[in-house]
Amino acid sequence: MAETTTLLIEIGALLLGMGLLGRIAGRAGVSPIPLYLLAGLAFGQGGLLPLSASEEFFEVGSEVGVILLLVMLGLEYSAGELLTSIRRSALAGLLDALLNALPGAALALLLGWGPVAAVALAGVTWVSSSGVIAKVLRDLGRLNNRETPVVLSILVIEDLAMAFYLPLLSALVVGAGLAEGARTMAIAVSAALVILFAALKYGRVISTLFSPRQREALLLGVLGLTMLVAGVAEQVNVSAAVGAFLVGIAISGPVAEHASELLTPLRDVFAAVFFVFFGLQTDPAEIGPVLLPALALAIITIATKLLTGYLAARRAGIGEPGRWRTGLALAPRGEFSVVIAGLAVSAGIEPTLAPLVTTYVLITVVTGPLLARLPESPRFRAALRRRMLSRDRGAVPPRR
Amino acid sequence: MAVRIEQVDLPGIGVRHDVLTETGRRVSVLTHRSGERTLAVFEVDDPDSCRDPVTLTDDEAEALAELLGASVMLGQLSALREAAGVYTEQIVIAADSPFVDRRLGDTRARTRTGASIVALLRDGSVVPSPGPETRLQAGDNVVAVGTRTGLDSLTRIIADGAN
């Protein structure tokens, strides 16, 4: 068979399989991300049926997937929303970073993986999946709830923090000595700041490049600009993902709305390819040894997210049940954790990182949405009511 | 009358407006970026959580708003009746009225009688604050506010275009 023919057959079969998996996930009401990762595991190195011809396609496709994930994330937010979120929830964001990055970093150091891997794993455990969480909140009809802005502000701050974290990580991963590392990092962070400033200040000008009415021209134009900026950002070690995110923030108004409508199907295809590719790179045989650490990490970081959300909601004046809803909703990790791990793995800093993160994301992305439903269960409500009652009783001064 | 409305931005999703009622309840309207909107009422025993969010189409939201607006307006009109010397009256446009299919402005109601036409009731719905270009139809119920004499002469004008 000619190579292109094999390529078509492999890609076709895999995409079709992913389509069916996506349908199953939709039926079961869960995120398809874990299923895509599993599909990748099954077909990758050491899997059931290694692919031969299409590896390169999936590699390029996954690169495009990351860029599309991030540009869409940027399109979701306007510059004003970013600023108000930071002003209002900076403290919650800081608490979130501390409580959730530390367990990851600690585990990496415990496993003797060195400081760079520690920074990478810290990022993996820090960021929640805004995509999964937004979907869960919508599905559970909680968008009108009073605690929802607390959840969303934390997500916004995490996403924005990625604009600084990712270039920092890429600089670290490139390594090259302390002085050289500091230099690349300085370049990376200042480049991110410059692009962010340009996006905030001249976003409207950039948007006038495009017309929301011409679909084809808009699609090509936004896609082109995104990939161009992503490429240039990668060139100066800012990481393509951050370039794409900043392009998304710079585009605003009706152009942003129409562009995100047009890009969504593309994003869905290539993001799925990205998850499969991450799975492809992981050898399923390596999952066994990391299962326990991954499980422990998942349990600890679900608890720290719960605490983060609980405290943030309490600060915002939300009642007891709402605080639990906030904390439990924040639990799932997802696309961003995989992006971070992908960055670290492709630089070859720690081969065991990939199976660990795959397992970790599999656990949290499946249990997260289930945990988010917990506050609705009658048993949970009853337990909470008892807790609140006993606390109220405790507050009453004892009778003489 | 002061009503407490809270506005909250939901980054990436839209804007939420809550109306806090005197009875201590919270009614919330979430306007999504996509233009869709959801109406929800907050629970009593868990004041941060909403119950049964309802998604409304443009038409449904408009119909609901008109319904609320009309009921408020009719309430205010009946309250006016108690004010000294000012009355509200509903005048039906008869089929033989000279103003059928003519513009409201042609009646020159306010200049000639001092009475104001504040609404039209037509086919069971309300046209609030009709403008001078609004066309009158046979069977329209004109809601007018004015003094006794003003309303009487308005009734005559509408009936036969007198004076």
Task: For the structure shown, list the relevant keywords.
heterodimer, A: 400 residues, 16 helices, 0% strand, B: 163 residues, alpha+beta, Nuclear Transport Factor 2, Chain: A, Alpha-Beta Plaits, 4-stranded antiparallel sheet, 3 helices, 9 strands, 25% helix, 35% strand, elongated
Task: Note the topology.
The complex is a heterodimer of chains A (400) and B (163).
Chain A: H1 3-28, H2 33-43, H3 55-76, H4 79-110, H5 115-126, H6 130-139, H7 148-174, H8 178-207, H9 215-235, H10 240-250, H11 253-281, H12 287-315, H13 320-329, H14 335-346, H15 353-373, H16 378-395
Helix pairs in contact in A: 2-11, 3-9, 3-10, 3-11, 4-5, 4-7, 4-12, 5-7, 5-14, 7-8, 7-10, 8-10, 9-10, 9-11, 12-13, 12-15, 13-15, 14-15
Chain B: E1 4-10, E2 14-20, E3 26-32, E4 37-42, E5 50-56, H1 58-80, E6 87-92, H2 109-113, E7 116-122, E8 125-128, E9 141-146, H3 148-160
Concise description?
In chain A, about 80% of the residues lie in helices and about 0% in strands. Chain A is an all-alpha fold and about 400 residues long. Chain A is globular, with a radius of gyration of 22 Å.
The quaternary organization reads as heterodimer
> Can you write the helix and strand succession of chain A as a string?
HHHHHHHHHHHHHHHH
Shape of chain A: globular
Number of helices of chain A: 16
Percent helix of chain B, as a range, is: 25-40%
What's the pLDDT, averaged over the residues of chain A?
85
- Using DSSP, what is the number of strands of chain A? 0
Give the terminus-to-terminus CA distance of chain B: 41 Å
Fraction of residues in β-strands of chain B? 25-35%
Query: How many strands, what sense, and barrel or not for the largest sheet of chain B?
Result: 5 strands, antiparallel
Number of strands of chain B: 9
Through-space gap between termini of chain A: 92 Å
